[in-house]
Amino acid sequence: MGIVVQKYGGSSVADATSIKRVAQRIVATKKAGHDVVVVVSAMGDTTDELIDLANEVSPLPPGRELDMLLTAGERISMALLAMAIGNLGQEARSFTGSQAGVITDDAHGRAKIIDVTPGRLQDALTEGAIVIVAGFQGVSQTTKDITTLGRGGSDTTAVALAAALKADVCEIYTDVDGIFTADPRIEPRASRIPALSYEETLEMAANGAKILHLRCVEYARRNDMPIHVRSSFSEKQGTWVVAADQVARYLDNESTEGDTAMEQAIISGVAHDRSEAKITVVGVPDRVGEAAAILRALGDAQINIDMIVQNVSAAATALTDISFTLPRADGQTAMTALARLKDQVGFERLQYDDGVGKVSIIGAGMRSQPGITATFFEALAAAGVNIQMISTSEIRISVTVAESHVDAAVRAAHEAFGLGTDEVEAVVYGGTGR
Amino acid sequence: MGIVVQKYGGSSVADATSIKRVAQRIVATKKAGHDVVVVVSAMGDTTDELIDLANEVSPLPPGRELDMLLTAGERISMALLAMAIGNLGQEARSFTGSQAGVITDDAHGRAKIIDVTPGRLQDALTEGAIVIVAGFQGVSQTTKDITTLGRGGSDTTAVALAAALKADVCEIYTDVDGIFTADPRIEPRASRIPALSYEETLEMAANGAKILHLRCVEYARRNDMPIHVRSSFSEKQGTWVVAADQVARYLDNESTEGDTAMEQAIISGVAHDRSEAKITVVGVPDRVGEAAAILRALGDAQINIDMIVQNVSAAATALTDISFTLPRADGQTAMTALARLKDQVGFERLQYDDGVGKVSIIGAGMRSQPGITATFFEALAAAGVNIQMISTSEIRISVTVAESHVDAAVRAAHEAFGLGTDEVEAVVYGGTGR
Prior knowledge:
By secondary structure, the first copy, chain A, is an alpha/beta fold. The first copy, chain A, has a domain at 3-263: 3-Layer(aba) Sandwich (Carbamate kinase). The first copy, chain A, is 33% helix and 24% strand. Chain A has an eight-stranded mixed beta sheet, sandwiched between helices. In chain A, strands 5-4-7-8 form a four-stranded mixed beta sheet. A four-stranded antiparallel beta sheet of chain A has the order 13-18-20-19, sandwiched between helices. In chain A, helix 12 crosses helix 13 (406-416). Chain A starts with a strand and ends in an 18-residue tail after the last helix. Chain A binds chain B through residues 16, 19-20, 23, 50, 53-54, 56-62, 64-66, 68-69, 71-73, 75-76, 78-84, 86-87, 92-94, 96, 99, 120, 144, 146, and chain B through 16, 19-20, 23, 50, 53-54, 56-62, 64-66, 68-69, 71-73, 75-76, 78-84, 86-87, 92-94, 96, 99, 120, 144, 146.
């Protein structure tokens, strides 16, 4: 059998007991005949504690040194995990990102993987050892300094190693059973999605679902590496994230004997996001280049905007409004940058609203199905939810609504597309760390 | 001016406040015109906490993984120290042992440095940065795995880097003012020794003085690298450890204007050690090879014995007694190994005594002075101290006494050789960590 890459997050290795539990799972995989490569995050709150220490000695720690500091966290968890596996009678060897050949650019704190040269890992596998690799970290190709990959970094490490090692699968372990049709804290009838395409998962991740990080899915898509998101607390199948033309096969695998394969749902899931704010630039002269000037100012301030809507200008005034959403954390920076532009652009005023939420329906099936938008909006209307902004992609429809309407909108969409299950599963829809 | 290497132990970087204090000292050295390389240990109790974690997941952690785990400690302290220095407006770059070019053999937990290739450190110094290096760690030449140097490892790292970089001096910072003529907790009139030869310092270290580790002094001696042991809490001169023919010069430096140089004392200091036990093999047949068989059994059990004494055999019985001292921690192992030998050697019985202590007087001056032994033993007799065993080197005389007599023996020797000072300094004679 081939290579299996498994990634365990900080909550899976939070203490000695958790580490020993994870070790048993890893050894079981090895005993089933696989070569096993494990990517591990820092224990529980280690990273936050190290950041607190950094802030105690310096208000603005240099990125190089912050990366040196934070990478100590994985070093601790991976060594302990290797010891726990050793104690179960299997040899395990831990490797730092640098030792594992995770080569990055030199952008400290948000480095990108540019190459993976896993020679030492292959040697260890050949010699029969289980390989443990520190997630979230690499080494700069140019400076040879230690780097970190930023949020979602451990997931990305796992996928990158899986691709470089030509693994059969990259298993991402979490504390829930997989990716759900909606957040079960909002919609108790939400059900696990057996399989999703990379594209759908990207849309889910980009629109608020907190299971997988965007860059990890993007990396998997580029390398066609199947991801299996599953719980570290059970042996159940989770959610397979695979190429679009493979989704049906994974759904087939789950159909019980005698059943015909399930037909792929038109809508795979409902995502929501409460982390954004909305800014409206009111009374913008409807001239060529005004919108560009506004977007340039935001770009220069390093702000990623998400949805953007421009009204048709009122003929009488030749003034228009431009609204966009952005991360709430960037709200103050954006307002300052825009205020500086007031005289140049000549708009009337700025409105800031952080009482908004975004609800998205995602599904590859909507490509071939007319009427999806109508069904979605009718369901929202019936639930008394007012739509503020709309944005669409080929496989997604997103609306901005009042934050207080998010829960109702999620439930209405979930019901309208028949995503509910009758078995209510007791899960917590938690976020992943790094 | 040239390169200064400074080593700070765990108590000097125990928390954010201590780290900021040390950072100021380092920056002051840099501003005085030196290139500065700092070697740092893990913060306070970090190493012990990591060992506790290891023991929670595995009763016998593999050496490779234990080294991977423990080296996280220095990674944390060195990154924080670099940040604190950066916050004072000086650039500092931290380097792991591996990055610093500390090449070792592959004996995990007690690796020996076999080469130092500090190219990256030299580049950083050339670019004007302060260099921070993780103590206690290196990388194996053969396996490329991370290694640790064992006890005293950070001191050894500092001396090795100082030698490789051709530094002017290796400063070892501690919480006392230097090396003292005796432990001030026992002898309040003990005074700081301004300068000592490598050989005297080796004898002090080997015989219970806890300031510098044997291997670090040995490394300095081989490379003729001056060590300056001094307090991180004051600017005062500490103890210079230098080549024997340089000692007088460092003593000269301290003589106040107009004074003639102090004459080097015959005895430099009194060391004591309470960590040993004594085993006596009673009634050994006085035949060729019996002592060898006993020592071979201990060697095979990896036990380092210290003093060894064999009585002249009683003519009537042709039986002799062999006594030796060894670390108390090895007592049980040694007794077991010897018991297995009973029938083969045919001795009568084993006596184990852990109520012993060793008191040594050390001084290069004793080479040329007859009567030192007599003065020492007369002083012990006058203090009512009974001598159990005696061992000597060219510059040291050691005796084993009852543990309850150690303090009296130290004070008696200190007084007999005129080592007392009239200023009682308030110091704590603490041990160094790693």
